[in-house]
Structures are given as C-alpha cells and as structure tokens.
Amino acid sequence: MKGKTLFGIGLFLVILTITIVSTYVSVNMMCPNNRVAPGLKLPSHHSDVDYEKEIVVVGTSMMPTFAAGNTLLLKRYSDQDLKEGMIACYEQDSEYMPCHRLISVVGNKIIAKGDNNNFEEYLDKSDVVWLVVGVRYT
Known about the structure:
With 138 residues, the protein is an alpha+beta fold. The protein has two domains: 2-30; 36-136, Umud Fragment, subunit A (Ribbon), CATH 2.10.109. The protein is built from one helix and seven strands; from the N terminus they run αβββββββ. The protein has one helix at residues 2-30, and strands at 53-56, 71-76, 87-90, 99-106, 109-113, 121-124, 128-136. It has a seven-stranded antiparallel sheet, with no helix packed on it.
C-alpha cells in the first residue's frame, strides 16, 4: 500500500511539473520577450478591453507576437500620442491593412516594422487608422 501511495504522489508531482512548464512555455510563446506593446491587453473575454473593431491576422509579419488566426482588438486612432512599441494599423496602397510595431516616432514621421520583417516602413502620422489595444490568441 505504501508503494502505491508513493507512486501516486510521484505521478502527481510529474503531472504538476508538466502543467507548470507547459503553461510557462505557452505564455512565453504568446508574448515572447515581453514584446507586448504599451497599453496592449491580453483579454480573456472581449468585455475586458474597450475596443471598436476586430480583425483576424492573416500574415506572418508580426510573428511570434501575433500569428495567423489571432484576433486583434482595435481602437480608432484620433491624434493620441504615439509611442515607440505601440502597434498601429495603417493605410497602404494594397488590399490589406498592416498592423506593425512603431519603432520610431518623431513629429509626424513614423517608422514601423513587423516583428518578423527585415525591413522598415516609413509613414506619416496621418496614415495611422487604428491602434491595437488587445489580442485574443487562438
């Protein structure tokens, strides 16, 4: 009987360890290197964040921060202070609307870059339409 009890305790500890490690890994895969933008929330439910629009990620430019299938929660940009690290969605001459990290904001000039891109995009403040205020990971 004592052997079965020790086996049960050992099994419990193994399962607990696996659960803790897998939770740690999944959280860090969602937000690696604390790359969450200033003011960005990770809601468990849509009512946790004040937002106006949802869009589904289709590309890979913001991996590993966002992946295809994740849902971004957006709030319309209306001349708030833009800060480096924020994630903004902006108009471009294409059929999609990129949502990339702001890496430089000087006056009305902005440099943005997808976390997974090896190039930068040069924008004006007037190009910014939405700010990402939350994300639902799928």
